[in-house]
Amino acid sequence: MFKALVVEKDDSGYRTSLQFIDEAQLPEGDVAIQVSWSTLNYKDGLAITGKGPVVRKFPLTPGIDMAGTVIESSHSRWKEGDKVLLNGWGVGESHSGCLAQKARVKGDWLVPLPDKFSERQAMSIGTAGYTAMLCVMALEKHGIKPTDGEILVTGANGGVGSIAIILLKKMGYTVIASTGRLEEGAHLKSLGAAGIIDRKELSEPGRPLGKERWSGVVDSVGSTTLANACSTTKYGGAIAACGLAGGADLPVTVMPFILRGITLYGIDSVMAPLERRIEAWKRLAELLDISKLESNTTEVSLEEAIAVSAKLLEGKVRGRVVVDVNR
Questions:
Q1: Domain segments of the chain as ranges
Q2: I need a surface site. Which of 30, 163, 204, 313 has the fewest CB within 10 A?
């Protein structure tokens, strides 16, 4: 038996609780993992609270991220004792996930834990940080250089935004952070932001073409914020879009694309191919200032993760949340 969060839905409603699960109830897979740490992402918050249609079958253990040790494997790439990471692949959505002490998954979904990171540090990064790296890689491959001008990061106090700031600062970019929590400005500047703007500047409907300001954008908000980011991006610039915290709509015109030649990159972390995942984690190991992770991380237990999920969706949690599944 092991501890796990379990999401259930029946005639009495939708609920998430801490339960003891028999190993026989683990899903199919060719690798079994002793989970050390998991984490809470926006998607996990939706799954735990039921405020978004994330969970696709019931009952199911949520949790899209984990770091742990292989305890059983019939997969050619993995053996007992290997330290591994998992991000996405539908785990915590259609395949029971990682907010548990044990998990069973497909070996093809796993990547090796970089030597630079402890398991806890890897979850301080998690899908949010891995997605931030994918966004930064997209801007980099577009050809945007630090000398080209400011980079806008929206949703800056969230997991993606906060780690994007750390990475971009390390690479020499000038970062402007957009947030609805201006009281967190000092924290964002400690991560590397050169300036702070109120999210209201971007969340209200704007003009189809605004004044050119950003050479690039990392956006985790979507909706009007993303539309305004597009309309104020410089000629030939690019936006990496990876989230919808502000909404799934996109009220934008074609004008920024056909008059300024900007590019909108969609960033998917869930089904990204293995090679891109390995590259992203390699770059994270090279670039991420580990010393900045701790001030950006909150630690909770499995049981505490239920209440913290609601706060996460309300935008009341700074940075990243790691879950110690063994307490």
A1: 2-113+293-324, 127-266
A2: 204
Tell me how far apart the alpha carbons of residues 161 and 175 are, in angstroms, rounded to a whole number.
Answer: 11
**Structure tokens belonging to residue 221:** 């908000």
Closest CA to 250 of 268, 271, 229, 270: 229
Instruction: Write out the two tokens for 199.
Output: 């999210």
Q: What is the pLDDT of residues 65-111, one digit of tens each?
A: 999 999 999 999 999 999 999 999 999 999 999 999 999 999 999 99
Residue 14: per-residue pLDDT:
96
Answer yes or no: are the C-beta atoms of 239 and 263 closer than 8 Å: yes
Domain at 2-113+293-324: CATH code: 3.90.180.10
Average pLDDT of the chain, as a whole number:
96
User: What is the CATH number that goes with domain 127-266?
Assistant: 3.40.50.720
At 11-26, the pLDDT tens digits run: 999 999 999 999 999 9
**In 3-state terms, what secondary structure has residue 316?**
coil
Structure tokens at 55: 């969970």
* Six-digit token string for 246: 């502000």
Give the residue from 153, 77, 69, 149 showing the smallest Cα distance to 113: 69
Q: Sign of the C-alpha dihedral, residues 152, 201, 237, 174?
A: negative
- Rounded CA-CA distance 223/231 in Å is 13
Express each pLDDT in 142-174 by its tens digit: 999 999 999 999 999 999 999 999 999 999 999
